[in-house]
User: What shape does this take?
Amino acid sequence: MKTLLVTVVLLCGATTVVRAQGTAGTPPRGFSLPARASGEIVMTGETYKAAGIDARRPNQAGRISMSPQLTLFGSFSVGLNLLVSTEGSQFRQNISQFGISPRYKWATFHVGDFSQNYSSYTVQGSRIRGGGVDLRPGIFRFSVQGGRSQRVVSGGAGNQAFRRNLYAGYVGIGREQSSFVDLIVSSAKDDPTSLDSALQDTLLLDTIPVALRPRYDTRPQENLVFGTRGQLSLFGRRFVLAGEGAVAVITRDVEAPPADPSSVGGGGAISDAIPLTLASSGDYAFKLDGTVNLGAAGLKGGYEYVGAGYTSLGLAYVINDRRAYNFGGNVRFLQNRISVQGQYQHQNDNLIGQKASTTKRDAMMASLSVLVSRNVTATLTGMNSLIGNDAAVDTFVVDNRSLALTANTAVQTAVAGMRTTVSVAYAFQRTADANIITRIPEITVHNLSTSVQLALSKAVSITPSISYAVTNTEGGERQSNVHAGFRGQGRFGNLRPSVSFSQTYNNGRAVTAATGQLGYALPWESRLSLQGRHSRYAAVGNRPAFQESFLTLSLARSF
Assistant: This one.
């Protein structure tokens, strides 16, 4: 609770200061300032309490986020992104962030913490602490960025990470809304000395032979990627062909013995760009996607190949060793009253035949939407998924099958003069594992749910709902799940209250949840929000009862 009070006091003070700055010295009518400020500041405090279990969250937490932007003379702008949180640990990456991004016409600069994506095979989803610049004069495009993409983590075995620096850039021509082409390069390297403090003189390293000295669980890596991406748009975007590709060299251990470049095809040119060791490897990836828009109908398809050894340290994650293709389409009839969509996807691994078997994944989806009348709509959706391999040994056979069907109907009407929306949905799902050795029993789930939204007045609405699910497990007992809920919300001037309550019975265990939220619009574009949530899990079998409670208070100001 102390965190909540400090948070509110600080934000109230910040809001007052901003208001004073915005009103003092107001220029006379007919005079315009050369500077304009905009953005948002949000401060949040949270308390958490658990009874009957170990706490899964800190008892108190506070967060401050700011995103102000200053525009000068209508053309030069400076943006700031700031996130400060009390949640942090030496055993994981710090989530506190600070960054500014000034912009002048077609030039944007980045300083501090920022994330600038290039392509799905080079740099994407990585946040850098450093600097960068993006230039887009006319149809020309240029970008460069560099800095630290990973900080040192020395939390012991399994919790180690070297400091990693990432540098990347691209040049291109064209506009993303139509046709363009970019050439991309990125380089990332770990600092092998950044974890030296984890092994100190207490181990007397200088008295131990080099071959016998302890080593870190994580090895320092280095990576170099050359990529390209582009798009061709014709006939007013009725036909669009997009693609991208990249070639990557990854060294899993920069301290491994050096390799002879002449023993690798093209190794001489590669070694000039990145030192090769016995832990180095390379691979490539590419994909093509095409769409055709014919108005009432459309087609789309794509193909992707990601080599088994492809890795880019500029990506937040990448799934390699896969080949995939997809195609689908949509069509509308009777003045868009009937819409049909369908898609098929296929994926397989073991691209270079080094595994004992190849795993294939196939997914088919189709949906039908019908506008029965002005107030009645109906939707039917089906999906079938198959995962299997060609293993010769029964123990390693994979044969998983999943089928899902969903039907939904919504009716808008009036009950006792109140606007009412009634929704009824049915869902069916079946999963099975056909491996004769490690076979998992087939599971079938039926779920029927309905909800009614009643507008009691222009300011108040309530929505009761109920659902019933039955789970049948082959060779097991039938299980049922009942969920009943209620939600009410209102609008009274600047006040926005809402409450919800739900009661669930899941395999004999009762779960009760209650949530209340109160929002209030304050002067000067400020908003106050208070939310409380309490959940109670009843005891079942040898699992004891426990409770969890959250209380969150936030204050935001837009300017």
Remarks:
- The longest strand covers residues 399-415.
- DSSP finds two helices and 30 strands in the chain.
